[in-house]
Amino acid sequence: MILAELVAQPPCNDTLGMNARTDAPLDLFTFGSTNGHKVAIALEELGLPYELHTVDVFAGEGRTPQFLAINPTGKIPVLRDREADLVLTESDAILLYLADKAGRLVPSGGRERTRAMELLFLQASLQGPMFGQRMHFSVFSPETVAYGIRRYEEQGEIIDSLVDQLLSGRSYFLGAEYSIVDIAFYAWYFASRAAGFPIDRHTSLSGWFERVSARPAVARGVTIPHPLPALPPRKRA
Fold first, then answer.
1. Which pLDDT value is given to residue 17?
2. How many folded domains does the chain comprise?
3. Partners of 26 in the beta sheet?
4. Domain that holds residue 169
5. pTM of the full predicted structure?
């Protein structure tokens, strides 16, 4: 049984992305969340045709035996390349795979590629986890946990300052060229801005955010398979 048979497929049309279509060699299993939006942006930027499947992890669809057979963590996004008979389940690994497959949005070798790998690991190990915990304690937690709010909002400020420094004098993380590193960082900043975390005082960061936001593929990607939901009011410590 191929992955396309495991999860019901929603109708695909241009509102879901320029490259979402049936019978494509790539299957994207996703939901309207930060890491899912990363991969949707990359597919739209690279022009790779893909078949879109919505997995509502908040309704428990990620915990079904069928989906756990694809990804034992029960998380989205998941990418299946039918031609390569390959399944990938970590968003930054998917970004790298797609960029290498298309031969775009990542350096092919040398110091530039090493730098790109370093920054992808930084996003995966620092920004993603810290911003995720900040979102949990400051937005989604049913209780107001002052320590958790203070800790992760402080961590968020440290990361914002670091990213601002990394982008100083640069249009994008790797210099003049837009890449999957920008996509990886952008998706979390898009969600954090929606949750009420400002970045305006960091001029390099905010300028970069506006440049990336202006890209048509990015504007499409953050709506696939649907936009971020309305978020609860931000809690205060």
1. 77
2. 2
3. 50, 81
4. 110-214
5. 0.92
